[in-house]
């Protein structure tokens, strides 16, 4: 047992570990050894210089050795002060030992009638009194600090360390590069205890849970070295260390899970609680404290999703999909708040390569400035009720930009904007279109609204009315991603569409599969029968352009003739 552990022997393992993790006891035994060696060296130098009659030279000036005894004495005192201030009680014991150890020599020398030693005796007594007073003050302030620290790191109700303590310990372990697992234990039906037995009984149950966790971790009965803590309410945390394999870690988690399943007895009533447990590990899953924490919660939430009570989930990367959605939703909100939703314009050409117009495609960037694909953020924005705002921003910004170009150039280019069905079904959609046309000055027949075929079919009745209204304004309607939904001729017939956009998936296979080619040709033919224009999406190769020309496609949109461009770049094409 080290000196420190002896000193801390009356305390629980948890407290010892926390103390180590905090910066309060951060000074190593080596620091103490250095101070002792420095003290002994300065004392020897002090004695030697005070007894010497000689001189040394700095330049041409003679300096008596005796005159530097004050400097050595100052070094000795500094060492003693540092021992006490940095090492508290052990430092004081060492300082007192060093001071007293010199006394027998001084006393013997006094008995040999060397009265000069009297000053040495008095100095040592004064030092002894000074360091004792210093220690009293240092230990008193350390006690206050400890009390404040303990209040900041302990949960009042259960007496367990809190989230702050867990973070501190995790950072300490990460600094030492020590493998550990963070386990989150949540009780599913805890509200029932509060509701049926009252808040006080609930509190007692939490204390019992805490005691159970504490005694397992203190006894080490799980087979690993564990640290029990609480976060808030009925969320409990464990830091599991010193496991040799994933199996052993799982056994520890099972052990706690089983312990939590045992009955609790509160106010003569016995009841059981069920848990959801999730855990993640450092460094396998994550290398930063916050991430280890988040992943353990992700795993716990995954366990919660299963109907199986008492389920335990180990974190895996697959679980991040949902987390990713949360992150993307946050980024969408942030982009909307900062007015940073922007758009690019992808050119559309006729088959003779004459510019027809542009499709406005929404863009947002993540915190690092990387562009997030609308394929990822539009579905999340739809679920979060944010797609209307994105559509609105793109609609107003793009109509204004293209409206200005049209005013300047008098060109007849068409601007296509995508509209989500959610947005379309909103009461104010038609007014929004009117307002965008008015503020931008873009002629109605030069605006095209793209509606995705598959979604449109689901809400056709409700959507139809709205589409008819915007169509009456003169705005064009395009059916996007045509062919991917349940295309039905009857709905095409009733729909006031002007354009159909053949989905990229058919264009990709067109030249390798005769069926795909015939399929595209059939869509184009039907479109023409119904008096629609047809745009092929996702055209990437010259062969595809040739085939599309041959089968009568009207317009081409794709990387081959033009990738989505920043508006200023797109303007140069006009
Ligand atoms: P979309 O309306 O079918 O747009 C065409 C998508 O295909 C665009 O992807 C475009 O960049 C991409 N694309 C075009 N040509 C090629 C090509 O040759 N090869 C390949 N591999 N891709 C090509 P983007 O910009 O990622 O947009 C994806 C979808 O997100 C859009 O599909 C649209 O449904 C939706 N979206 C984009 N902007 C908005 C918006 O402002 N509002 C709403 N509601 N949805 C939007
Ligand atoms: Mg589109
Ligand atoms: Mg499309």
Based on Cα principal axes, name the global outline. elongated
Continuous helix count: 23
Helix percentage range:
55-70%
* Low-confidence region ranges: 1-10
Look at the helices and sheets and give the structural class.
alpha/beta
Query: CATH superfamily name of the largest domain?
Result: EAL domain
The whole-number mean of residue pLDDT values reads 87
Bound molecules: ligand C2E, magnesium ion
What is the fold named in CATH at topology level of the largest domain?
TIM Barrel
Domain count: 3
Q: What is the CATH architecture assignment of the largest domain?
A: Alpha-Beta Barrel
**Beta-strand percentage range:** 15-25%
CATH class label of the largest domain: Alpha Beta
First-residue to last-residue Cα separation: 81 Å
**Rg calc:** 39 Å
Major β-sheet, in short? 8 strands, mixed, barrel
Overall description:
This protein is α/β, with parallel strands linked by helices and 574 residues long. It folds into three domains: 24-153, no CATH class; 163-320, Reverse transcriptase/Diguanylate cyclase domain (Alpha-Beta Plaits, 2-Layer Sandwich), CATH 3.30.70.270; 325-573, EAL domain (TIM Barrel), CATH 3.20.20. Helix content is 56%, strand content 17%. It has an eight-stranded mixed β-barrel with strand order 10-11-13-14-15-16-17-18, surrounded by five helices. A hairpin with a 2-residue loop joins strand 1 (55-58) and strand 2 (61-64). The radius of gyration is 39 Å and the shape is elongated. Residues 1-10 have low confidence and may be disordered. Bound molecules: ligand C2E and magnesium ion (MG) (2 copies). The site of one magnesium ion has 4 residues, from loops. One magnesium ion (MG) binds next to strand 15.
């Amino acid at each position: 047992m080290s000196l420190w552990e002896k000193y801390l022997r009356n305390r629980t393992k948890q407290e010892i570990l926390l103390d180590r993790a905090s910066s309060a006891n951060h000074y190593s035994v080596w620091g103490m050894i250095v101070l002792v060696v420095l003290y002994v060296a300065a004392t020897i130098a002090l004695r030697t210089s005070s007894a010497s009659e000689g001189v040394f030279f700095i330049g041409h000036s003679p300096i008596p050795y005796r005159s530097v005894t004050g400097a050595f004495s100052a070094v000795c005192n500094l060492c003693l002060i540092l021992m006490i201030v940095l090492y508290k009680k052990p430092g004081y014991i060492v300082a007192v030992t060093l001071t007293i150890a010199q006394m027998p020599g001084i006393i013997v020398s006094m008995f040999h009638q060397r009265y000069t030693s009297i000053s040495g005796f008095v100095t040592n007594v004064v030092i002894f009194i000074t360091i004792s007073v210093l220690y009293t003050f240092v230990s008193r302030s350390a006690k206050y600090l400890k009390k404040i620290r303990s209040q900041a790191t302990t949960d009042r109700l259960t007496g367990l360390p809190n989230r702050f303590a867990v973070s501190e310990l995790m950072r300490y372990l990460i600094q030492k590069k020590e493998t550990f697992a963070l386990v989150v234990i949540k009780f599913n039906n805890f509200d029932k205890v509060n509701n049926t037995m009252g808040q006080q009984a609930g509190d007692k149950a939490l204390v019992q849970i805490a005691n159970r966790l504490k005694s397992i971790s203190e006894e080490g009965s799980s087979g690993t070295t564990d640290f029990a803590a609480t976060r808030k309410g009925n969320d409990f945390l464990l830091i599991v260390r010193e496991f040799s394999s994933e199996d052993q870690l799982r056994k520890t988690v099972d052990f706690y899970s089983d312990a939590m399943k045992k009955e609790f007895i509160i106010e003569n009533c016995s009841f059981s609680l069920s848990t959801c447990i999730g855990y993640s590990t450092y460094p396998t899953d994550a290398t930063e404290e916050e991430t280890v924490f988040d992943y353990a919660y992700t795993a716990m939430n995954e366990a919660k999703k299963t109907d199986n009570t008492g389920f335990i989930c180990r974190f895996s990367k697959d679980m991040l999909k949902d987390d990713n959605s949360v992150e993307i939703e946050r980024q969408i909100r942030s982009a909307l708040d900062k007015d940073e939703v922007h758009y690019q314009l992808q050119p559309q050409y006729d088959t003779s390569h004459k510019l027809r117009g542009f499709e406005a495609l929404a863009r947002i960037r993540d915190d690092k400035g990387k562009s997030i694909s609308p394929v990822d953020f539009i579905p999340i924005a739809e679920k979060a009720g944010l797609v209307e705002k994105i559509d609105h921003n793109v609609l107003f910004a793009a109509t204004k930009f293209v409206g200005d170009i049209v005013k300047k150039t008098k060109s007849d280019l068409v601007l296509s904007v995508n509209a989500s069905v959610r947005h379309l079904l909103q009461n104010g959609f038609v007014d929004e279109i009117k307002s965008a046309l008015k503020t931008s000055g873009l002629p109605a027949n030069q605006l095209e609204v793209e509606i995705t075929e598959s979604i449109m079919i689901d809400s056709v009745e409700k959507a139809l009315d709205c589409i008819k209204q915007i169509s009456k304004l003169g705005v064009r309607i395009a059916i996007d991603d045509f062919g991917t939904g349940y295309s039905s001729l009857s709905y095409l017939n009733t729909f006031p569409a002007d354009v159909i956009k053949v989905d990229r998936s058919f264009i990709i296979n067109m030249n390798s599969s005769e069926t795909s080619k015939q399929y595209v040709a059939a869509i184009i033919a039907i479109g023409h029968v119904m008096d629609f224009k047809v745009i092929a999406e996702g055209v990437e190769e010259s062969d595809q352009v040739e085939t599309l020309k041959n089968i009568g496609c009207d317009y081409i949109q794709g990387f081959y003739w033009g990738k989505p461009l920043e508006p200023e770049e797109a303007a140069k094409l006009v």
